[in-house]
Structures are given as C-alpha cells and as structure tokens.
Amino acid sequence: MAPFYFAYVNSNFISFLIFDTQFQINTMKYLPINKQLFIKNRKNFMAQMKPNSLAVFNSNDIYPVSADSTLPFEQHRDIFFLSGVDQEESILIVFPDCPKENLREVLFLRETNEHIAVWEGEKLTKEKAFETSGVKTVFWLQDLEKVLAEMMAYAETVYINTNEHYRAKIETETREARFTKWLLNKYPAHTVAKSNPILQRLRSVKDQIELDLIQKACDITEKGFRRILNFVQPGVWEYEIEAEFSHEFLRNRSKGFAYTPIIASGNNANVLHYIENNQQCKAGDLILLDVGAEYANYSSDMSRTIPVSGRFTDRQKEVYNAVNRVKNDATKMLVPGTDWAEYHKEVGKLMTSELLGIGLLDKADVQNENPDWPAYKKYFMHGTSHHMGLDTHDYGLLYEPMQANMVFTVEPGIYIPEEGFGIRLEDDVVIQEKGEPFNLMRNIPIEVEEIEDIMNS
C-alpha cells in the first residue's frame, strides 16, 4: 500500500503526517566496501594526469518515466570506481597539484536533512562520505560554483569524462555531458583533456577487492542457477524462470540482474538478444539462459543451456559438448600478451573444426568461405570474449594486449534454427600472471551429466 499522508501548512513550515507505512534507511543492499580500494583508484588515476590539472566526475541522473515515476537509480561507474559514492547528485573533483592541500580531492554531495531522510531515506553525511570514499574534504552541492572557481583559477588543464566505450550508443544527454557543456562554456581558456583513456586502462585491470566482489556476484548467480535446475519442467513459462532467478538474487543482497536476462526456450535461443521471456517451455526443448547477478555494482555474466525435460537428446548433447570444448580450449588462450583480435581468429578455427565434426559444415564450405565472413559464422556469429567488471561489457582497450587481473567472459555458441535450438555456454575468468585463467564460475554446473543429475535428483 502506498503511504497515506497530508500536509499542514502555515507561514513558517510545512509538516507532513504519515500513516500506514514504515520508512527504512535507504542504505545499499551490499556490505560496505573497503575504502582503500577507492583511495588506490584515485591515486592511480592522478598519477597519470598532466601537471597542474584537475578532473571532474559526475553521478548519473535519475531518469523520468512519466508523471512522477522514475527508473531505479544506477550510479555512474566512473565516480563509483574512484569514490565508492553510490547516490545521485554527487560530484568528485581530483586536483593532485592544487596548492591548497584540502582541495586535492573534493566531494560535492546533495545536502541531507531530517526531511530528506524521512521522505527518501538516509543520504550520505560528510562523515559517512569520508568513511565510504576516504575523501576528507566534502562540501554540499550548493557550494560547487564557488569552490570550483577557486580550483579552476589554480589549474591549467581540466579533464572531462566522456563515454568512449566501443559499444556505446548515446541518445540521451547525461548529467556528465550537461556539466561538461557548462564547464567548458564558463572556463573556455583552460586546456581540455580526456579522462576516458586513463579509466579504460585502470578499470580493465582489477584490484583483488574488485575480484572478490565479482566473485560474490558469480556466487549469487550460481545460487540462482541451482535453484532453477530444480524448478524447470515442461510447461513452465520463461518469465517464471526469470522470477526464480530474481528471487534468489535479491535474497542474497543483489539489486537483481546485471543486465536484461535472456530466458530463451526452443527456437527463441536463435535470437541472440531475445528478452521477451514470455513463452512456455515445451518438453524436449532446450532453454538458453544468459543471466547474471550484480553485486555492489559489479557484474557477473553467465550462459547455460539446459533441457526442459531434464535430459538432453543425443543430438543436443553432441552439439552441447562441441560448444563446451570450444569454450574450454578458448579459455586456455586467455593469457597475458594475447591480442584480442587474433584470439577471436583462433577461436574461429576451433569452432570450424567442431562444426565439421558435427556435420553442420563440410570441407567445401570452408574452402569456399568469404574471409570477411568465415563459414563458421553461419552458426556462431558473435564474439567470444569481452571485458567484464563494473559494466557487463566493461572498459578495456581491445587493441592493447591482455594483462593479468583482467576479467573476460568466454561465451561460444552454436545456433541451429533449422533444428529448433541454440546453445551458448559462458563463464567469467580472471587472467593470471602465469598459466590458465582462474574461472570465477568454476562451481556452476556445466557438464551434461552434472546438469542432468541435478535436474533429475
């Protein structure tokens, strides 16, 4: 039930009387993160800035739906990466060479008070902001222009934060973009630099604290997957499976899905980004599950394919095992120094061999293939691996060699519309200094026999 309230107004104040509701402190579901992570991240960022320069980072907007409805708030990953601040209307400025020591790291927050605490939940106080971020100097947002004017007077270069991710398609002007427009108009004499190239490199190599958070997200995903293995049977609906995942994620301190889930039964699996999740699962079909829980804004990204009836047919098993072999062999290639583009060419060779083995390609198909669209692309048309972390498709410069502590997905698939099913298998792995990567999803069932045993236990 929505809260019932009325307002009493006089010349001095407005007081609200609230009935039939309870208000809880608006804290995040996840447990506190060690602020040393954010202190280290800022230090690493500032070490790569030009002399006598400052950089500005904004939180995201809360986006409207209609009337007074809004979408759930999602923090801009860059300000979170550098401060741990996870609320709207927040700004971080770093200025390592500032002559005033107290202005070298500054947070600006929306001022909180008892009224806001009652109506929206508790916001960060200056003390809590320090506990979260390690930033000692915290101002309320209304002081921004005055303090920024002083800082800009000392600075020669200003770093702006633009989204240059290779998958980005931006149609809505962000809070960051609006602020940048205002800043450059107000201070046109400053040299402008970009934060993104620095962040692309920093965010792509994970700290151990970050790896632990991603592992937590993967562990929550495992709980969801094991739950649905005991739930799926002929006649269930795709959205019911989605609901089972959501239940398990939320009860384990996740906000929910790290990305829009794919629950694709039968031929739906041959639509790569099928998200309707509104069809009934039929006996004999497979269900392709591409889901992942988030935890503390960090993503997981899992794909599994399971039989509605609890048993794979011989043909389904043959194709499934072919995909799994490609995944296992591709994973071994993810080592320091690997070139992303060359890696995908090698995975293409692995997939071509498997498609020949299961009769989907013949030698003539391969001999006559178009080099720009090899024969295997008919059945495996997407990439095999992408960076993962704070974003599901995380920051990382694909033209630079892979490094230890980068996290990548490994997700080959074979899609056969004429046979009515598609199979994708995906794990998240951490590149190691030496040897094969560490599989963050090592405990999530993937072998045919294990899946069948659990579904029939």
From TrEMBL:
<dbReference type="InterPro" id="IPR000994">
    <property type="entry name" value="Pept_M24"/>
</dbReference>
<protein>
    <recommendedName>
        <fullName>Xaa-Pro aminopeptidase</fullName>
        <ecNumber>3.4.11.9</ecNumber>
    </recommendedName>
</protein>
<dbReference type="InterPro" id="IPR029149">
    <property type="entry name" value="Creatin/AminoP/Spt16_N"/>
</dbReference>
<dbReference type="InterPro" id="IPR007865">
    <property type="entry name" value="Aminopep_P_N"/>
</dbReference>
<keyword id="KW-0479">Metal-binding</keyword>
<dbReference type="Pfam" id="PF00557">
    <property type="entry name" value="Peptidase_M24"/>
</dbReference>
<dbReference type="InterPro" id="IPR052433">
    <property type="entry name" value="X-Pro_dipept-like"/>
</dbReference>
<dbReference type="InterPro" id="IPR036005">
    <property type="entry name" value="Creatinase/aminopeptidase-like"/>
</dbReference>
<keyword id="KW-0645">Protease</keyword>
<comment type="similarity">
    <text>Belongs to the peptidase M24B family.</text>
</comment>
<keyword id="KW-0464">Manganese</keyword>
<dbReference type="GO" id="GO:0030145">
    <property type="term" value="F:manganese ion binding"/>
</dbReference>
<keyword id="KW-0378">Hydrolase</keyword>
<feature type="domain" description="Aminopeptidase P N-terminal">
    <location>
        <begin position="33"/>
        <end position="169"/>
    </location>
</feature>
<dbReference type="GO" id="GO:0006508">
    <property type="term" value="P:proteolysis"/>
</dbReference>
<dbReference type="GO" id="GO:0070006">
    <property type="term" value="F:metalloaminopeptidase activity"/>
</dbReference>
<keyword id="KW-0031">Aminopeptidase</keyword>
<dbReference type="Pfam" id="PF05195">
    <property type="entry name" value="AMP_N"/>
</dbReference>
